[in-house]
Write a structure and sequence with these properties.
Two copies of one chain form a homodimer.
Chain A lengths: L6 E6 L3 H12 L1 H8 L3 E7 L15 E2 L2 H5 L6 E4 L7 H10 L3 E4 L2 H18 L3 E2 L11 H7 L5 E7 L2 H13 L3 H10 L8 H4 L2 H15 L9 E2 L7 H9 L2 E11 L6 E11 L11 E8 L3 E8 L3 H21 L21 E11 L4 H11 L4 E7 L21 E8 L2 E2 H12 L4 E10 L3
Parallel strand pairs in A: 1-2, 1-4, 2-3, 4-5, 5-6, 8-10, 10-17
Antiparallel strand pairs in A: 7-9, 7-11, 9-10, 11-12, 13-15, 13-16, 13-17, 14-15
Helix pairs in contact in A: 1-12, 4-5, 5-10, 7-8, 13-14
Catalytic activity (chains A, B): L-homoserine + NADP(+) = L-aspartate 4-semialdehyde + NADPH + H(+); L-homoserine + NAD(+) = L-aspartate 4-semialdehyde + NADH + H(+)
Function (chains A, B): Catalyzes the conversion of L-aspartate-beta-semialdehyde (L-Asa) to L-homoserine (L-Hse), the third step in the biosynthesis of threonine and methionine from aspartate.
Organism (chains A, B): Streptantibioticus parmotrematis
């Protein structure tokens, strides 16, 4: 049953993840052979800078010509860990045309144009796997696509970006502001020199698009995902969350609508109760909740990034792609038959926590409550702090307690309402004379 | 690409899980057809009591002749949710011989004789899937077998029995004794009328055997698993754990030995620190930690039992088995190439928390410490409570504080040592004149 001609693998990219993939492939040959059912061989590694020293990576395999490598014709599986849209998309489709299956860690490409890649893979009769594109080593795509294939997923709610979780965790545990926490994350290697993709939520939005598409058997691209980063989260927001028994997390949230006729995908900071399992996800860890009709609530937790964890996910996919090559078949591919449309953020039903600086005089609450009522937004709780009751010392740290000059703070938590109605309510509140400012707005999730 | 002849499924057993499988199969036909790539049809349901009312289960499909059903010859997949060893083993092998793949939720059979079943499936060229056999809806077997196929798993540590977790959670949160907590679990439906399989650890041991075999690519049967139930866990043990900042859980633990040349599998109550994610797994939930070389620490959490969650896992496997049937292939089967032997419990390296009732006189600690040294067991911490220092009020509840008549309590936590050495140490301690009794022994894990 064991064939002797080895399966040939081409590696595109040899950075942190790629070099770990190469290292494991060249040192764990016995295990990989046994698990695949045939030997597997690293046949070439395409890099941009061939002179860079790469510990444990066979120098004779290095090439700068990625296109020639994927066109060789004897490659069974191409592993792509370069990232970005082009030239990677062209390399992957070229690999398909030459009969290779592809294992990719490329969330940006999959979230931008997964449909094109899936169609090209189907046409070529090969596999496209990308477990490593979402949440590093945590098995998520395979469980969603295969383990839950007989179930109906209604919600995916997760922390899928380690950098922002590290920043928020520091803000929560030390009281630091955003900039200070970002500096620490950068110094410790958790944030890149240009942290935009992480802190503005682009990375999480790409993952949300991929997860929503798979979970709901439809197509979702990053352009469909409502995205808010965490650059505007303040120490005051975190303190305010604490007073509510909550913490702030940057969440990726994919929902099937109540009528089942549409889906939504969004990334934004949100308060979640400390009792929610996601609240205790610390540092750069990731965790994803999945809610399904029959399965109930499942959670998947682990390291969401890093060379070794990402390599683990890549190698799992590599073994699967190699097994399929041997069996002359392909695994479960794209499933987008529901064709459910993606609704805009305004239609998402959510809850707001709103902290207002208001004039400290009678009638303010009535005015504010009227604005909520006019927008059909129902209020869950109101907390009012005038000078007389400002005993909890929150004013001193600027988190919304009593101010000099007759101000008070009003903290309103709403019931669930369409996001458009909540957002219109906030705009109307800003126009009230008695409202001096909106100190903080944040959605509340996970209850 | 869509074929019109439906895939035919035979269901063996129609209790809590089976009726939910039947219900979903008959109501979610559109989704199942789309995900499989062909229609799937329930062709027969074998039951023992045909007259029982089964809501939503087509009566015309009911038969009492399970053997005839699996021998029909037109069945593509047999779903087995009867449980137990015989007649199920014979039914499954007969199904294989007649060309059907099998999806089973039968942990007892898989843990007793998985090798025979796997060999029969390979011989027949069909699939044997059993995600539902371990931890209900939580995807564990597929992630271990496929997602981590390129990694090296070193440890699996989990709460895999909901009944015992419910009992321990109640004991921890209410201070109840074992019997009282068991009564509550029974009243609420979390424990069966005969709770032996759960509380004596047989159920968890079967799951440990299955997980160890898959995680370490070897064969482990339930007979290889060291098993201690929780019937001897007392309120005093729980209180003692609390004083150490721990809680008590019934854990299934599968380890690869430090030299990589053997594995161990065991089920027993253990103290784990409150900071460990498993400590916060409440009620009847399950959660499993997996530690792998490259992936690091992963956790999988969710409902570990119940009709719907188990049906979710069964249906995920059913979709996979049907897809493979259509493609004319089989999925990843047994991988037992490492042939690693299973070491006995005595060779497991662990830590003990030992609570002794001792005479309250000088020299006792020296005597006790000598016994530990003679067995090459190193002491981590000792806490001694004589009458003078018995201020924390633990004596009143019998949890090991100061007693009348010149007794004191001595709580010793060891460093890691072979279980045989720890156990021999306890036996030697019992023989000391100054040791009046061993109030509690428990292993400490998860640090």
């Amino acid at each position: 049953m064991m064939r002797t001609r080895p399966l040939k693998v081409a590696l595109l990219g040899c950075g942190v993840v790629g070099s770990e993939v190469a290292r494991i492939m060249t040192t764990h040959t016995h295990d990989l052979t046994a698990r695949i059912g045939a030997p597997v061989e690293l046949a070439g590694i395409a890099v941009r800078r061939p002179d860079r020293v790469r510990q444990g990576v066979p120098a004779e395999l290095i090439t700068t010509d990625a296109t020639a490598l994927v066109k060789r014709g004897d490659i069974d599986v191409v592993v792509e860990v370069i990232g970005g849209i082009e030239p990677v998309r062209t390399l992957i489709t070229t690999a398909f045309e030459h009969g290779a299956s592809v294992v990719s860690a490329n969330k940006a490409l999959l979230a931008a144009d997964g449909a094109t890649l899936h169609a090209a893979a189907v046409k070529a009769g090969v596999d496209l796997y990308y477990e490593a594109a979402v949440a590093g080593a945590i098995p998520l795509i395979r469980p969603l696509r295969e383990s839950l294939a007989g179930d109906k997923v209604n919600r995916v709610l997760g922390i899928v970006n380690g950098t922002t979780n590290f920043i928020l965790d520091r803000m929560d545990s030390t009281g630091a502001g955003y900039s200070e926490a970002l500096d620490e994350a950068t110094a410790l290697g958790y944030a890149e020199a240009d942290p935009t993709a992480d802190v503005e939520g682009f990375d999480a939005a790409a993952k949300a698009a991929i997860l929503a598409g798979i979970a709901f058997h439809t197509r979702v691209t990053i352009g469909d995902v409502h995205r808010e980063g965490l650059t505007e989260v303040t120490a005051a927001d975190i303190a305010s969350a604490k007073r509510m028994g909550c913490t702030v997390k940057l969440l990726a949230i994919c929902d099937r609508s109540a009528d089942g006729k549409s889906v939504t995908a969004r990334v934004h900071p949100a308060m979640i109760p400390l009792s929610h399992p996601l609240a205790s996800v610390r540092e750069a860890y990731n965790a994803v909740f999945v809610e399904a009709d029959a399965a109930g609530q499942l959670m998947f937790y682990g390291p969401g990034a890093g060379g070794s964890p990402t390599a683990s996910a890549v190698l799992g996919d590599l073994v699967a792609a190699c097994r399929n090559k041997l069996a002359g078949t392909t695994g479960a591919g794209e499933s987008a038959y529901t064709r459910l449309p993606v609704s805009p953020m305004g239609e998402v039903v959510t809850r707001y926590h709103i902290s207002l600086d208001v004039a400290d005089k009678p009638g303010v609450l009535a005015q504010v409550a009227t604005v909520f009522a006019e927008h059909d937004v129902s209020i869950d709780t109101v907390r009012q702090q005038s000078r007389d009751r400002g005993a909890d010392g929150v004013a001193a740290d600027g988190t919304g307690g009593v101010r000099e000059g007759g101000e008070a703070s009003l903290v309103v938590v709403t019931h669930r309402a369409p996001d458009a109605a909540l957002s219109a309510t906030v705009e109307a509140l800003r126009k009230l004379d008695t409202v001096r400012g909106v100190a903080s707005i944040m959605r509340v999730e996970g209850e």
